[in-house]
Structures are given as C-alpha cells and as structure tokens.
Amino acid sequence: MNTEEKIRKQLADNPVLLYMKGTPEDPKCGFSRNAVNVLSGLGAAYSYVNVLEAPFIREKLPAVSDWPTFPQLFINGELVGGSDVVCEMAEDGSLKPMLDQAGGAA
C-alpha cells in the first residue's frame, strides 16, 4: 500500500480524523492545540494521526487534500480545514452538526 492509499484508507476508516502535529494530550504546535481544544470543547470523538511520527503522510497529505498546512480536520473523508477554519466553524455553530452527523460528537 503506498502513502496515498494509506491516507485514503485512514479517511475511509475514521469518520472524524485530525492530522496534527503531536497528540491530543501533547500537541506540538499552537494550531494543533487550538483544533484539539475545539474538538474537545464540543465533546467530539475523533481519531488522529501525528504527522511528526509519520513523515511520509506529512509529506503526501497536502497534495491529497490540497491544503498546505497542519492540522487538517476531515469529516466523512472530506477536508473541513485547518485550525482557523475549525475555530471559525465552532464559533458560528456549523461544526457541531457536522460532527453529530458523522457520529463524532457525544
């Protein structure tokens, strides 16, 4: 399985998936921390991939998603966006219904 196939499998297998730097318990950048805080604040159930420990995914994902930076939040295989987009959607109330629909909210 090549890297792109692995990414597509991860997206297919995880309704809510955050590609981030670090882990939810120990984010390694402020943008990843912001995304984790938003998802935790909404009670979201989500999976994550630490791109710092997955250099091939870190290198390939921007070409797959057409999004250059991390974190990247996907819901039902579709890119939602990075930290700023996730924060804005949480503020305007549009993120929680997407998480609920995906089974990613408690």
Any overview of this molecule?
The protein is of the alpha+beta class and 106 residues long. The chain has one domain: Glutaredoxin, CATH 3.40.30. Helix content is 49%, strand content 20%. The protein contains 5 helices and 6 strands. The strands form 2 sheets. Strands 4-1-5-6 form a 4-stranded mixed beta sheet. A two-stranded antiparallel ribbon has the order 2-3. The mean pLDDT is 95. InterPro entries: Glutaredoxin, GRX_PICOT-like, Monothiol_GRX, Monothiol_GRX-rel, Thioredoxin-like_sf.
Q: Estimate the mean pLDDT confidence.
A: 95
Distance between the termini: 33 Å
- Shape by Cα distribution: globular
Overall CATH architecture: 3-Layer(aba) Sandwich
Major beta sheet, specifics?
A: 4 strands, mixed
What share of residues are in beta strands? 15-25%
Q: Tell me the structural class.
A: alpha+beta
Radius of gyration: 13 Å
Contiguous uncertain segments of 5+ residues:
none
Query: N-to-C SSE series?
Result: HEEEHEHEEHH
Total helical elements: 5
* Fold-level CATH name: Glutaredoxin
In CATH, what is the homologous superfamily?
A: Glutaredoxin
- Strand order in the sheet with the most strands: 4-1-5-6
* Number of spatially distinct domains: 1
Helix coverage percent: 40-55%
Count of beta strands: 6
Indicate the CATH class: Alpha Beta
Concise overview:
This protein has 5 helices and 6 strands, in the order αβββαβαββαα.
Write the layout of secondary structure elements.
Layout: H1 3-13, E1 16-20, E2 22-23, E3 26-27, H2 30-41, E4 47-50, H3 55-65, E5 72-75, E6 78-81, H4 83-92, H5 95-102
Parallel strand pairs: 1-4
Antiparallel strand pairs: 1-5, 2-3, 5-6
